[in-house]
Amino acid sequence: MRLALYYTPEADDPFAKAGADWLGRNAYTGETWPSAIADVHLSSARRYGFHATIRAPFGPVPGCDPAELEAVLSNFCRAQSPVVIDRLMLARLGRFLALVPQKQPDHLRDLQLGVLRTFERFRRPLNPDEVARRNPAGLTERQRHYLDAWGYPFVLEDFQFHMTLTDALEVSEIDRIEPLAKEHFADFIGAPLLIDRLALFQESEPGAPFIVRSSHRFGGSSTEKIA
Fold first, then answer.
1. Are 99 and 89 in contact (CB under 8 A)?
2. How many other C-beta atoms are found inside a 10 Å radius of the C-beta of residue 15?
3. 163: which strand partners?
4. Distances from the Cα of 51 to the Cαs of 124, 140, 170, 200, in angstroms?
5. What pLDDT band is residue 54 in, cutting at 50, 70 and 90?
6. Pairwise CA distance, residues 52 & 164, whole Å
7. How far apart are CA 78 and CA 69, in angstroms?
8. What is the C-alpha separation between 69 and 219, in angstroms, rounded?
9. CB 198 within 8 A of CB 115
10. pLDDT digits (tens, 9 = 90+) for 137-187
């Protein structure tokens, strides 16, 4: 089993529905259907669900009770204030398409740091195979340090909020799919986005789809128990 802490909109939000329709999968229910583009370009993205990574997937420490983690997450989220992204943009991140802030608010990095510190005690250290899968030779010295310290290289200064829309694409495929993504997410590109919750995602076994276990709203007592 692996767990992850992601931002994803609440289940009935139009943004969540747009993301699910694009990927052809609802991360809250696990339901799947034909995606907006060919599945060959989405197999990994749809497995993870429509989300932005705040705490990357991790193996829990032996004896970890996900219910205890959920209780800590609920308390953590009650103490948070929503973060506003002024303008959401469609961008090319290397060979991927993703939705990103035009300018990343400092409070997003503060949120990620708080999540890292609060939930580190639940994370099992990476084993050598897991480290190797991160291609440490291709990381900067700082990212390699973060991989050792936090189990993920793209944190703190290297954290970038993004909602991945595709798997890795060839340039010709990016050129073809980018206009489709612009049309599909037209109501949200150029508009603000309110980051007002975190969700606990769970992968039951290696390669299984990630599914929302629970969603926790900032600044309130609302918790949506899913699984």
1. yes
2. 20
3. 99
4. 23, 25, 23, 11
5. very high
6. 7
7. 14
8. 18
9. yes
10. 999 999 999 999 999 999 999 999 999 999 999 999 999 999 999 999 999
Q: Which CATH architecture has domain 2-225?
A: Alpha-Beta Complex (3.90)
Residues shown for the chain: 227
Amino acid identity of residue 107, one-letter, is H
Q: Measure the CA–CA gap between 180 and 137, rounded to whole angstroms.
A: 35
Cβ-based burial of 114 (10 A; exposed 0-12, middle 13-18, buried ≥19) = middle
**Does the pTM of the predicted model rise above 0.90?**
yes
Residue entry with tokens 């992850």: 4
- One-letter amino acid at 57 equals P
Which residue blocks in 49-161 are alpha helix, DSSP H?
Answer: 66-78, 106-119, 128-133, 141-150
Q: Please give the structure tokens belonging to residue 62.
A: 């032996």
Per-residue pLDDT tens digits for 16-50: 999 999 999 999 999 998 886 766 688 899 999 99
